[in-house]
Specification:
42% strand, metal-binding, Fumarylacetoacetate hydrolase, domain 2, isomerase activity, 20 strands, Fumarylacetoacetase-like_C, Rv2993c-like_N, mainly beta, five-stranded mixed beta sheet, 260 residues, 2 domains
Length: 260
């Protein structure tokens, strides 16, 4: 089942994609047809309260960057204001010189998860979607990653939640920039798989339905420029399309100069 959030005629709803038609979601089953996919606007498929992310979680990236092999997952957070939907613009702040793409598999939580055993992790997963963990590389120098990871539009998700993924370690993630492949790796290249990550995260974070766990990005992370189209495709799920846009200078938003 592919679960979508959509906007149509001024209202927002949740539905199920059946072929190229969106149907109402009623008691976890498709209901009446809402409209054709081409007639509505897809939104980010969930509205997370918490977005927990795993860093340096692909063997290929660890080798590429010359990093030390992790003994446990490295976690950070993204703020919900960063959420953007499929087709939405990723806005590069005017102060940022290097804005990076990071294609990732996103896990959407289906029920309250706390102290989840790894062998029961699948029971707490609603499904999976594509994510772009957009990063302002300049701002990593802050000493913590709040700005670098959580500016507006820095977490595109979509195009929908795929609930029928029997093995999240048997997928392939591909990122394209301007139509050129810049990342390609199997999800089996994760150092810590979905089950291990969910068990680790929920030792300290209670995750609620709709919350999101980002599972790390493969080798090949690189810069995006205004005007660049970027796609994150995951086999068995779909393709998330976005375009980079130049953000306004701070004085253009508020009338005052903001120091960075």
């Amino acid at each position: 089942m592919r679960i979508v959030r959509y906007a149509l005629d001024g209202r927002v709803g949740r539905g199920v994609l059946v072929g190229d038609a969106v149907r109402e979601l009623r008691d976890s089953e498709p209901g009446a047809e809402v409209g054709r996919l081409s007639e509505l606007t897809l939104l980010a498929p969930c509205e997370p309260r918490t977005i927990v992310c795993a860093g340096s979680n692909y063997a290929g990236q660890i080798i590429e960057k010359g990093r030390v092999w992790p003994r446990q997952p490295s976690l950070f957070l993204k703020s919900p204001n960063a959420i953007a939907g499929p087709g939405a613009e990723i806005r590069r702040p005017a102060e940022v010189r290097r804005l990076e793409y990071e294609g990732e598999l996103a896990v959407v939580i289906g029920r309250t998860a706390r102290d989840v055993p790894a062998d029961r992790a699948a029971d707490f997963v609603l499904g999976y979607t594509c994510a772009n963990d957009v990063t302002a590389d300049d701002w990593r120098a802050d000493g913590q990653w709040a700005r670098a990871k959580s500016a507006d539009t820095f977490c595109p998700l979509g195009p929908w939640i795929e609930t029928e993924i029997p093995d999240p370690s048997a997928l392939r993630i591909t990122t394209r920039l301007g139509g050129q492949v810049v990342q390609s790796a199997p999800t089996s290249d994760m150092v810590f798989g979905v089950d291990a990550l969910l068990a680790f995260v929920t030792r300290w974070f209670t995750l609620e339905p709709g919350d999101v766990l980002l599972t790390g990005s493969p080798a090949g992370v690189g810069p995006m420029l205004p005007g660049d189209p970027v796609e994150v495709e995951i086999s068995g799920i779909g393709t998330l399309h976005n375009t980079v846009a130049a953000g306004e200078a701070p004085e253009g938003r508020s009338g005052k100069t903001v120091l960075s």
